[in-house]
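Running this now, will post back.
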Amino acid sequence: MDFVDGIVYSDTDQVAQLNHAQALGATDQLIDVLARLHAVDFEAAGLGQLGKPAGFLERQVNRWCTQWEKSKQRELPDIDEVAKRLKRSIPANTDVSIVHGDYSFNNTMWSRSDPTRMVAVLDWEMSTLGDPLTDLGMVSVYWGDAGEIMWRNRSPQPHRLNPGFPAGDHLLARYEASSGRSISNIDVYRVLAVFKLSIITEGALARIKATRPDEDTTRTENTIAELAALALTLASNSSVTTLRGS
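Update: finished.
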């Protein structure tokens, strides 16, 4: 592991200084680097033991369903409905690649001299071998409504501070073009990502109840409910038939 010098776009002024072309270029670089990561020959790189890719997506769905049962503080019918739809929507065949596990703008570092050149990807603790579209699903929902819900009471996400950054559909189209991989069933991965974020936040709720005022508890409960509702809305509006309902 080596030291890398660069900046993380977390400061309002840093992001505001990017012009339209730079904001678009940084977005494209974010997605192009993800596509390149997913193209790495992990066996040749000596990473064949990084994970167990067989049945990866099914395990992910089952893991988060189990985690919900362990951590839930109250009943949320939207979560139960999304879980049911995800279980019947797992693709039969998926690609295998290195998966970062938490890929987002906040987990990248950029050149000080060229704001469109990424110099490092950070926070690899969740990396494994699995379905590459789980990374795309997560980065796209972070970029969209799920990110807005989660960051509403914190510092704004960097790309929301500059109108030069494109909408989430641009990220999906860029990935499809850059990777050459079909994303026709990306809705499954987007719904799974929001479902996962709901459950992670629910897991934090018990700690919040124990250590913070009632206002924080209510705010977090509302965030979880909004995320669960978003996951169900994404599923209901999906082009994937099995996600849309009974």
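The chain has one domain: 12-243. More later if anyone needs it.
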